[in-house]
Amino acid sequence: MLKVQQLAVDYRGVRGLDDVSFQIEPGQLVGIVGPNGAGKSTMMKAMLGLVPTVSGHVSFCTCPLCNQLERVAYVPQRSQIDWDYPVTVWNVVMMARTRKLGWFRSPGRATKEIVKTALEQVEMLDLRHRRIGELSGGQQQRVFLARALAQEADIFLFDEPFNGVDQPTEAIMFQVFANLKAQGKILLVSSHDWGESMSQLDRLLLLNRQLIADGLPATVMTPENLQQAYRGVLGHSHPNDQSFVC
Question: What is the pLDDT of residue 244?
Fold first, then answer.
């Protein structure tokens, strides 16, 4: 079980995340939604120790998550990745094996097979020799999904993975998510517009610095909860409107 308890983050004296607690069982796909500046990306980074926290504790199987990060695959927003870096699709995914392989050991047959299988799952094996910067947005996202798969992690954190991707890529991603769920993995995914895809979630977290609601999508996305989460932001727009980015 992944457990987040009373997680809080300050930015120069301003509370960016306040007293957030939840837990996720193995085999669950949990979505996060909320307005711009709600703290969705911050929460994922805080869980991994990438930003300092003022309070809170994150554990997996009763042990601090920060002591077992090799069990976590994290895919940040595409805007945080240097797409001009001259590296091929194959090598991007191979980087996922570096922790287990070591920096100075050549990959063996088993390692290459793991990378090959990951690329096949996202239908990118044929482009394995292409530079990452030459790909479309959807193709780039598939490559980083393959990299996450190649880590053979227990926990998968995806920050805005659907942003700027095409429909075939989104379908592939949800198929991969379903496979990971069947393997008992934990998936936490943020998105600014779930749309019809919300029906594929086991749970939804509605966040605006604090956790507004946690449960089945239908019970979370009520007018009362949305008003509280998007107060001062919604106006007369729907919270799934494309103007609401994470």
Answer: 32
The pLDDT, as a whole number, for residue 177 is: 97
- Closest Cα to residue 30, out of 176, 158, 175, 210? 158
Helical segments of the chain, H only: 40-47, 89-94, 98-101, 109-121, 137-150, 167-182, 217-220, 223-229
Q: Where are the domains of the chain?
A: 2-229
In this prediction the pTM is 0.89
DSSP 230: S
CATH fold of 2-229 reads: Rossmann fold (3.40.50)
Query: Which amino acid makes up residue 232?
Result: G
- Between CA 128 and CA 124 the distance in angstroms is 7
Low-confidence ranges of the chain (pLDDT < 70): 101-105, 232-246
Q: How far apart are CA 97 and CA 118, in angstroms?
A: 12
pLDDT at residue 85 in the model: 84
Backbone angles phi, psi at 135, to 5 degrees: -90, 160
- Picking from 86, 143, 82, 78, the residue whose alpha carbon sits closest to that of residue 115 is 143
